[in-house]
Amino acid sequence: MNDFFRLESLVMQFGGLTAVNDFSISIEPGELVGLIGPNGAGKTTVFNMITGFLTPTSGRVLWQGEDITGLPVHQITARGIARTFQNIRLFTDMTVLENVMVSFHHKIRSRFWKAMLGMPSHGREEQRIREEAYGFLQELNLAHLADEKAGSLAYGQQRRLEIARALATYPKLLLLDEPAAGMNPQETMELAGLVREIRKRHGLTIFLIEHDMKFVMGLCERIKVLDYGISIAEGTPEEIQTNPDVIKAYLGEPKHA
Amino acid sequence: MTTTIFFQQLTNGISLGSLYALVAIGYTMVYGILRLINFAHGDLLMVAAYTAIYAVTMFTLPWYLSFPLAIALTGCIGILLDRVAYKPLRDAPRISLLISAIGASFLLENLALVIIGGVPKGFPRPDIFAKVIEILGVRIQVLTIYIPLMTLVFLMALLYIVYRTKVGKAMRAASKDIETTRLMGINVDRIIALTFLMGSSLAAAGGIMWAMKYPQVNPFMGVIPGLKAFIAAVLGGIGNIIGAVVGGFALGLGEILLVAFFPQLAQYRDAFAFVILILVLLFRPTGIMGEPITDKT
Amino acid sequence: MTWKGKDMDTSKRNLYCNLAALCLLALVLYLFDRHGTEYQIRILNNMAVFITLAVSYNLVNGMCGLLHLGPNAFITIGAYTSALLTMSPMEKQMSFIIEPLIWPFSVLQAPFFVSLIAGGVMATIFAFLISFPVFRVRGDYLAIVTLGFGEVIRVLCNALQGVTNGPLGLKGLQPYTNLWWSWGVAVFTVLVITKLVNSSFGRAMKAIREDEIAAKAMGVDPFRHLLLAFLVSAFFSGVAGGLMAHLITTISPTLFTFFLTFNLLIIIVVGGLGSTTGAVIGAALFAWGGEALRVVESPMDLGVFTIPGIPGMRMVLFSVILMVVILFARRGIMGRNEFSWDWLFSKLGLNAK
Ligand SMILES: Nc1ncnc2c1ncn2[C@@H]1O[C@H](COP(=O)(O)OP(=O)(O)O)[C@@H](O)[C@H]1O
Ligand SMILES: [Mg+2]
Predict the structure, then answer these.
(1) Chains near C, with 3+ CB pairs < 8 A?
(2) pTM for the whole thing?
(3) What is the C-alpha separation between C249 and C171, in angstroms, rounded?
């Protein structure tokens, strides 16, 4: 058991439906862990509980020795956990650069009245934010689109912008919810390289949900499998690939075993 | 306060509550399907009252023809309202839809002002509603009794349609999830039109009874009852028909009894509903009978 | 390579252009102040007050994407506070015939400038108090709570005779509001709100408008930022209320009904929700057009016979304009675009480099 990041027996019920039941995991600093499972298994719900969008019915989210269960979303982000969304949620009518700049706001030092009166100190801070945000765009090959509206980007670019925006909050733990969804094989391969790169460069710990098995198996060091809200397996990619319960969950009950 | 006066106030509260309930149903039904506060809904009270006046005075129809005619006509105006002001904005941002609703409300009010003028008109209340009877020593205008009874009749008819017919089933499905309902091959536009027809007809019935109870008809008469009925709908948990009725009665009774027990607060009466609204939103944003809202991510 | 901000030449040029525009405005105001007719001066004053109101209203509705329907409440609060402070204790004693004015308003008197600030501050305090129920909800609910707050304030204005003098209102205020005051406040409001909108705080507000869930996930606290917009907006609405009071010189509860909010809504929708430039243009059009349209409500003398005035006709026109814009040209005049010197110069083909 470590003190870095731990989920303890998370349960999430929606009315009569138990979307997640008794989910526990412990992640070490620097690990890259995958969460897989059929549609509706409860994977996104786990992310929503970690990031404060949902308050678990029971269970705890422990982060760097602190119980952060049920904290407001923005406070959890400020503590160093960032996420992307399965169905892309960009600020579509703002520019690509502005999208990334938003992520810097929670660390801003200027007070609002300094901004309103156009004090030079706020101007300098803005300029610094602008430059750093641009750096993240370069890292994700989006720099040439800095002044475009986010809504006008191609699908793969939007996915990358989601990652750039999450990175710009300077997280220690990054949660990626189906980052390769809707990408072609070429883009998916590039994305895998990108994820490795950002992990190394920023010293990140990554927890990701993905359906593309090649992507997950090639990238993750450890994988957790969810089915109907229940964790049915955990292990290295090799172990998971040969686990009979996992095969059953994905292929359905064999007819005449 | 004597018991006589108390009972008089109680019946008053019940009949005011029934009027709020009738109007609140329309808000709640439209909100259930379109997630829109139909700001112009209250103005349909005014439309119905004027239509009834003109049917009686200009076309000299008897009241038992004029009133249903006014109700039917107002129902059609409700459909028209949807077609003109809301339907083109189905895919637009919510704020546009609301602004259109506010615009439609002002348009109706000021058109009435331009066409008819701002001088309040008396309402030709049929004599049979003006009679005063005595029950157990309490003198009550028969209208005060007819109003809740009529409300009950309308409510029963509505509940029958919503819960016992195929159309009603489609309406309920549409208010749960309009997209899925559309995918199931149901003509959602027809369902929406029907919702407006029913909601507006109920508002019209409310408007005519309102005009009989407070026989001063002017272009802005629907504004305050409309707002309060909306609050009644929120109080009951918006989207919930029974909730709207409960909310309507609670608000009507609350208002009348507040003034009855604390006459010195009479001048604050119009603020009462909003204070209740603010309290409800602070402590139970989904109303008394509503289901909790969750963010979908 | 690093991202380059605007180079020095352009930002210097823009500064000079701003100063030149201000000087030009001052010159125009000076000329009208000296030689303008009463009618022209009234329109110019109205224009400035509506610019202040519309730009601050747009901060909440356009930038944050909320439908706030209660600016009339804050204008009322500002107007009454400011008026009660500029009236002398003698005047107040004479006006409050039904119920005497409560202490400390009965003895206080302050210069016009202080009274305007006090009006703004008082409006801000009320905005803060109402903010907790308001920001518990969004969308239609928020609209109805803010509208309800406006109604509550109107009811209070009529009922609390010891503060507001009830339906009689306050009469005989000094006409302190002149072109310098009204335009001074308008220019200050536009500058400050533009700075705010273009800052990191403004970006956070727009992010909430675009997608509140994503904004939260990026560390933005929606309550704090919506509150900031709401309070700043209330402050300037309050100040504008004080200006209005000392422009009309008579205030009563009927002056600040939902009609006022409706007019502001038309202004920002026609100008383009989310554009400060649009709010300014909308306000200017409204102040001028509103006066010009008075003809449709006054009797028209055609020599042979007279067409009687039709009350309500202007509001019919305004409602139709609002609906036509929202149905067929939802982005209004400016969309979400802003005027900038860069834009103007590139239009003129004069771009530096
Ligand atoms: N906010 C919510 N309210 C009600 N039910 C929900 C909510 N979020 C998710 N669910 C339900 O929980 C289950 C798991 O959903 P989700 O976590 O999105 O699955 P996955 O991401 O694994 O595909 C689904 O049945 C879904 O309908
Ligand atoms: Mg999911």
Answers:
(1) A, B
(2) 0.92
(3) 6
